[in-house]
Amino acid sequence: MPSSADALLGLLHPAWQALIAGCLLVVTVLGVWRLAGRGPARMTNAVFVTGFLIVAVTALGTLAVSCSDPQTRLPRSDIRTPAR
Q1: How far, in Å, CA of 11 to CA of 4, rounded?
Q2: Residues 46, 35: contact at Cβ < 8 Å?
Q3: What does residue 14 show for φ and ψ, rounded to 5 degrees?
Q4: What is the pLDDT of residues 11-31, one digit of tens each?
Protein backbone atom coordinates (compact mmCIF):
# COMPACT_ATOMS: atom_id res chain seq x y z
CA MET A 1 0.00 0.00 0.00
CA PRO A 2 1.59 3.31 -1.04
CA SER A 3 1.88 6.00 1.60
CA SER A 4 0.85 9.62 1.28
CA ALA A 5 4.52 10.63 1.01
CA ASP A 6 4.90 8.39 -2.04
CA ALA A 7 1.86 9.98 -3.62
CA LEU A 8 3.17 13.47 -2.95
CA LEU A 9 6.57 12.66 -4.43
CA GLY A 10 4.85 11.04 -7.38
CA LEU A 11 3.19 14.37 -8.13
CA LEU A 12 6.54 16.14 -8.22
CA HIS A 13 7.77 15.60 -11.76
CA PRO A 14 11.52 14.87 -12.13
CA ALA A 15 11.93 18.07 -14.15
CA TRP A 16 10.69 20.09 -11.18
CA GLN A 17 13.05 18.19 -8.90
CA ALA A 18 15.94 19.14 -11.19
CA LEU A 19 14.79 22.78 -11.23
CA ILE A 20 14.61 22.91 -7.43
CA ALA A 21 18.05 21.28 -7.13
CA GLY A 22 19.49 23.78 -9.63
CA CYS A 23 18.06 26.74 -7.71
CA LEU A 24 19.46 25.41 -4.45
CA LEU A 25 22.86 24.92 -6.06
CA VAL A 26 22.91 28.48 -7.44
CA VAL A 27 21.89 29.99 -4.08
CA THR A 28 24.49 27.91 -2.23
CA VAL A 29 27.29 28.86 -4.61
CA LEU A 30 26.39 32.56 -4.44
CA GLY A 31 26.24 32.44 -0.64
CA VAL A 32 29.62 30.71 -0.35
CA TRP A 33 31.16 33.14 -2.86
CA ARG A 34 29.87 36.16 -0.93
CA LEU A 35 31.00 34.71 2.39
CA ALA A 36 34.47 33.86 1.05
CA GLY A 37 34.78 37.41 -0.29
CA ARG A 38 34.39 38.81 3.21
CA GLY A 39 37.64 37.26 4.38
CA PRO A 40 38.98 34.32 6.30
CA ALA A 41 37.89 35.54 9.74
CA ARG A 42 34.22 35.59 8.75
CA MET A 43 34.59 32.33 6.85
CA THR A 44 35.99 30.58 9.93
CA ASN A 45 33.20 31.97 12.09
CA ALA A 46 30.59 30.84 9.57
CA VAL A 47 32.04 27.32 9.46
CA PHE A 48 31.93 27.07 13.26
CA VAL A 49 28.36 28.35 13.45
CA THR A 50 27.21 26.02 10.65
CA GLY A 51 28.92 23.05 12.27
CA PHE A 52 27.34 23.84 15.61
CA LEU A 53 23.89 24.12 14.04
CA ILE A 54 24.30 20.77 12.26
CA VAL A 55 25.30 19.06 15.51
CA ALA A 56 22.48 20.77 17.44
CA VAL A 57 19.78 19.80 14.93
CA THR A 58 21.08 16.22 14.82
CA ALA A 59 21.10 15.97 18.61
CA LEU A 60 17.60 17.43 18.93
CA GLY A 61 16.27 15.09 16.26
CA THR A 62 17.83 12.09 17.96
CA LEU A 63 16.40 13.13 21.33
CA ALA A 64 12.96 13.71 19.83
CA VAL A 65 12.89 10.24 18.30
CA SER A 66 14.29 8.47 21.36
CA CYS A 67 11.93 10.25 23.77
CA SER A 68 8.75 9.86 21.74
CA ASP A 69 6.05 7.55 23.01
CA PRO A 70 5.79 4.32 20.97
CA GLN A 71 2.00 4.52 21.23
CA THR A 72 1.89 7.83 19.34
CA ARG A 73 3.98 6.67 16.40
CA LEU A 74 2.19 5.94 13.17
CA PRO A 75 2.34 2.32 12.03
CA ARG A 76 4.71 1.63 9.18
CA SER A 77 3.05 0.45 6.00
CA ASP A 78 5.70 -2.23 5.30
CA ILE A 79 4.95 -4.13 8.53
CA ARG A 80 2.04 -6.50 8.25
CA THR A 81 -0.21 -6.83 11.27
CA PRO A 82 -1.76 -10.21 11.98
CA ALA A 83 -5.42 -10.61 11.07
CA ARG A 84 -7.83 -11.03 13.94
Answers
A1: 11
A2: yes
A3: -55, -30
A4: 777 777 888 889 999 998 898
